[in-house]
Amino acid sequence: MDALLGNYNRAPVTFVRGEGCYLFDDQGRRYLDFIAGIAVCALGHSHPWIAQAVSEQARTLVHVSNLYYQEPAGTLARELVDRSGLARVFFCNSGTEANEAAIKLARKRAFRRDEKDRMTILACTGSFHGRTYGALAATDNAKYQEGFGPMPAGFAFTPFNDVAALEKNLDERVAAFIVEPVQGESGVHPATPEFLAAARRLCDARGALLIFDEIQCGMGRLGPLFAFQRFEVTPDVVTMAKALANGLPIGAMLVAECAADALRPGDHGSTFGGSPIPCAAALAHLRVRDAIDLASYVAVREVQLMARLTDLALAFPNAIDGMRGIGLLAALQLKEKYPVGDVVTALREAGVLVGSAGGNSLRFAPPLVIGEEGIDEAYDALYDVLAKLDERKEPILAG
Ligand SMILES: *Cc1c(COP(=O)(O)O)cnc(C)c1O
Predict the structure, then answer these.
(1) Which ranges of the chain does DSSP label H, i.e. alpha helix?
(2) What is the set of active-site residues?
(3) In this structure, are 194 and 334 located in the same domain?
């Protein structure tokens, strides 16, 4: 493993197998996966329908490039269009690429409309949109940008969930306003419905595109397939990735009719984008969702998860500062004196994998197929670890 570049803070564990909501390491130890590869494995690990779709596609057609058509991409695009009500789909390989495409689309649209001064990409404070330059410039995180300057010009920020500030900042120079309906990376902060509704109204009034980054909060994590369907505000562009193919690399940008002709032949592209195997996996993912009515199931599990986390927040006021969440995406904010990394480690050692997020928060994004007993298992582990913190009032890990 020492040949891998040291750009990640990896935990000292090597996974060899996954099954449902559990992962197994090379020592044969079992872990409850309560982060699902950062909101990726919505159907858990090694789902048989996904495995079958991938292996069948691997034996049929793996790659032809975007010089030609192939069926999985066309069929998946049609499914996403029918289910979203948007008009066209561009496929790429990751979330950051989907956002790059959206940024380029927004600027090219203004260019085609002869709006020379309309270039600004307006994003929110606390945002995360990815690690490539355009997406990074739209990301409000000094640590992620540090040392990588200069950032591309033409990016600006407006306070998240502040309608009055948005009124002021979303002016005629804004090509697009990009917002996560739920900010994941910054600590699981849902947008208010008023903020998203105001964004829709102001984008219409001022001629800007409204982009929802649903890379983390979409694909059923809030229940409905799209996060915007829960907030009942329809954007012009939706970016997707993470869970779309349940673990295979894929990104997508969905575009409404009003912006669909901004990118024309030769304007943008990707060698692997929409390649047959990830598309086949994504189609299988959609079929599973339908077959088990995952949207209704998530609504039930959401109630249980939020109740358990509320319970923990009330039980351990010395350790926990607050709790946030929507759908099966949630966070427990820890007191400053308990570094989240130590708690993540303690939970892993107790056999439960969780993530961290901004604001010293534990982040939870279990597979959407998590059972009632899976949430209880995570609760029990959290209870034990947090009880120790709450009592000892000192860092849980020595040193
Ligand atoms: C993960 C994430 C991205 C970046 O996706 P990658 O596939 O890692 O490039 C962008 N936006 C949001 C909201 C994300 O959660």
Answers:
(1) 36-39, 48-60, 71-84, 95-112, 133-137, 142-145, 163-169, 193-206, 227-231, 276-292, 294-315, 340-349, 372-392
(2) 128, 213, 242
(3) no
| Structural tokens at position 201 | 């109204």
Ligand 1 mutation pick, 38, 100, 128, 132, max ligand atoms within 8 A of CB: 128
pLDDT at 374: 98
- Verify that 26 and 75 share a domain, yes or no: no
Same-domain status, 163 and 263: yes
Which residues in the chain land under pLDDT 70? Answer: 392-399
User: What is the rounded distance in angstroms from the CA atom of residue 129 to the CA atom of residue 95?
Assistant: 8
* Ligand 1 centroid – CA 215 distance (Å): 6
Each residue's pLDDT tens digit, 197-215: 999 999 999 999 999 999 9
Residue 79 class from Cβ within 10 Å (0-12 exposed, 13-18 middle, 19+ buried)?
middle
Of 215, 226, 189, which Cα lies nearest the Cα of 102? Answer: 215
Other Cβ atoms within 10 Å of 219 Cβ, number: 28
163 forms bridges with which residues in the sheet? none
Q: Token digits for 166?
A: 């948005």
Distance in angstroms (rounded) separating the CA atoms of residues 272 and 268: 13
Domain holding 362, by residue range, is 15-33+293-389
**Cα Rg for the chain, rounded, in angstroms?**
21
Q: Which atom of ligand 1 is nearest to the CA of 241?
A: 7
